[in-house]
Amino acid sequence: MSVKSLDRMKEYIGLTDLPFVIKGVLSVRDALICRDIGIKGIVVSHHAGRLRYAVPPLMVLPEIRKAVGKDLTIFVDCTVASGLDVYKAMALGADAVSVGKHLMPILKEQGAEGVADRITEMTRELKGAMAFTGVRDTKSFDPSVIHLRNF
Fold this sequence. Notes:
The protein is α/β, with parallel strands linked by helices. The chain has a domain at about 5-100: TIM Barrel (Alpha-Beta Barrel), CATH 3.20.20. It contains 5 helices and 4 strands. It has helices at about 5-15, 30-35, 55-70, 85-90, 105-130, and strands spanning about 20-25, 40-45, 75, 95. Strands 1-2-3-4 form a 4-stranded parallel beta sheet. Helix 4 links the parallel strand 3 and strand 4 (about 95). Helix 2 crosses helix 3 (about 55-70). The protein is globular, with a radius of gyration of 16 Å.
């Protein structure tokens, strides 16, 4: 793992017809750079808190979404452990949410079936929160129901 120059990133993008996604975006500036060089998606992430003083992804997510509009697909990860966490991320502007660290102990203890069960439960939690707030589909979240100071 190393820092890649913009020229190197453009080279990678040019090597495939597949959409290119970059993980670890934590600023509007970097999101706009990604958009401008042809990246199709970003993962707003502080790498599971490994960057101790980095901005939490959900705090910067609304600014990033506003800046890039629908030009980029935005994924979010980090600190996602429930369907309510998924709801927060989607309401704040994510197109999709990734869950990793939360599922690792379940995978170790219960295997793939345990992970599938947990994902099913998280989906139920998400659907419940959507029903409580009148969100009919994943394109209809209302960011005004989320207050950043509460998480």
